[in-house]
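User: Okay, second chain of the day. Same drill as before: sequence in, structure tokens out.
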Amino acid sequence: HGCAAEHLSNGSVAFLQSTDEYAYDGENLTFGLSMHWNESVSRLERRCVETLTSFIDLQRERKFITA
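Assistant: Same drill. Structure tokens below.
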């Protein structure tokens, strides 16, 4: 399970879509989940953005990337 987001020029992160990856018979299958089902999906989207934002902030603090 994962998510895709965009790092915006103002430093914020915008949620794009959720993803689920599966494999069958040696083949990888990826499904994009762009539907907003219910509150739990919204909570997962917020968690995705919060996690990515924290990672970007940590990288910036350690000077791995610059903005």
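The beta strands are 2-7, 13-24, 27-33.

User: Thanks, on to the next one.
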